[in-house]
Amino acid sequence: MYAQMVKTSGSGVKSRSEMGAQEQAFQARIDAGDKIEPRDWMPDEYRKTLIRQIGQHAHSEIVGQLPEGNWITRAPTLERKAILLAKVQDEAGHGLYLYCAAETLGVSRDELLTELHAGRMKYSSIFNYPTLNWADIGAVGWLVDGAAIVNQVALQRTSYGPYSRAMVRICKEESFHARQGFVIMMKMASGTPAQRAMAQDALDRLWYPSLMMFGPSDKDSVHSEQSMAWKIKVKSNDELRQKYVDQTIPQIEYLGLKCPDADIRWNGEKGGYDFSEPDWAEFYEVIKGNGPCNKERLGARVKAWDDGEWVRDGLMAHAQKKAAAKHAAAQEGSGNVE
Ligand code: BYC
Q1: Does the pTM exceed 0.85?
Q2: What is the pLDDT of residue 6?
Q3: What pLDDT, in 10s, does the model give residues 172-197?
């Protein structure tokens, strides 16, 4: 039940001559940099790919609340508690924008959540790792939100209008999230030897999982070729991972910490760092449902859904009552009493 499995198509990209007239016109709009809007014609696979990616993105936002939400009651000061509370609340908002963007494609939020709860839709692998102490909260803000920003800045230019617009707003909020994480890390890294050791340990554990957030290497990415042809993705998984490493290594140095990858080297020729790949076998285990926290995370989401049933039922009953009263008043006003 907890495996995050979705059947992938990965069937290759059609050439112009294989496309019908409607598809050719659609592709020409994409190539010209037009945004596709909900009422526009789109190929079924384009719609399906967006529902998969936006849905997975939305799920990541709400599952991503769990590892940090866990630390709200244990934040070291009132100020830190207020900041973390605001951040975790922002993530719920991000989930909302994204579920709304997915709804414009003809799928309901309830349907997407049913898929998540049944283990048929994924969420980001990173949230299947635990947050063991306060330094991890700094590292999540800094590394995880930092990685999310690199990915999402590119997605601001995605071809689907509602997704692109959601990304603009999300990116602004994510920048605040990453900074609050970096400030926690600065405090820990310049604190007592024990605090410094905690900061290093958090970096050691979260470095490779944060690299995995960008997805498998381009050669193993099943969806990239088609998604890039449709400009759903505008940068490849490896391009974004490289950008992230290049921006993060100087930050590690600034903190006076050590990157857990002994093979990190500046490569002047390519103008970026050489780095070791994450353990992809571990990545595939995690997305199959076998990471350290998959069961706990999905269990928490399912419980929240079940516990909230009475609220949803109450809201629906209230809405139906109001709609019935409005209908009755309208009937009475028109003298058309049934
Ligand atoms: N985790 O062909 P590929 C946040 C799956 S929330 C899990 O390269 P694609 C935050 C992939 O789905 C930020 N699964 O796929 C929130 C596919 O399987 P399916 C979340 C992954 O879609 C709260 C298979 O592997 N951001 O930051 O072209 C608090 C093959 O991959 C992952 C987004 O969701 C992964 N890491 O590219 C704090 C960004 N990577 O679906 C922070 C939006 C790959 O065929 N998504 N898979 O069964 C994307 O940009 C793209 O979907 C990805 C993957 C780059 C992630």
Answers
A1: yes
A2: 36
A3: 999 999 999 999 999 999 999 999 99
Mean pLDDT of 11-27: 88
Residue 163 Cβ inside 6 Å of ligand 1? The answer reads: no
Determine whether 245 is exposed, middle or buried from the number of CB atoms within 10 Å of its CB (0-12, 13-18, 19+): buried
For ligand 1, atom 49, name the residue with the nearest CA: 53
Using CB atoms within 10 Å of the CB of residue 67, give its burial: 0 to 12 exposed, 13 to 18 middle, 19+ buried. buried
Protein residue whose Cα sits closest to atom 41 of ligand 1: 6
User: Of the residues 60, 226, 234, which should be mutated to test ligand 1's pocket, given the most ligand atoms within 8 Å of the CB?
Assistant: 60
Q: What is the CA radius of gyration of the chain?
A: 22
Question: Tell me: the pLDDT tens digits for 133-155?
Answer: 999 999 999 999 999 999 999 99
Structure confidence by residue, pLDDT tens digits, 27-60 = 999 999 999 999 999 999 999 999 999 999 999 9
CA distance linking residue 201 with residue 188, whole number of Å: 11
Which residues is 274 bridged to in the sheet? Answer: 265
pLDDT at 335 over 90: no
Cα–Cα distances (Å) from 283 to 208, 235, 299, in that order, read: 10, 21, 20
266 forms bridges with which residues in the sheet?
273
**306 burial level (CB within 10 Å; 0-12, 13-18, 19+):** exposed
The residues, any chain, with a CB within 8 Å of residue 315's CB and separated by 6 or more, are: none
Q: 3-state class of 233 per DSSP?
A: coil
Q: Is the CB of 222 under 6 A from ligand 1?
A: yes
- Residue pair 155/167 in contact (Cβ under 8 Å)? The answer is yes
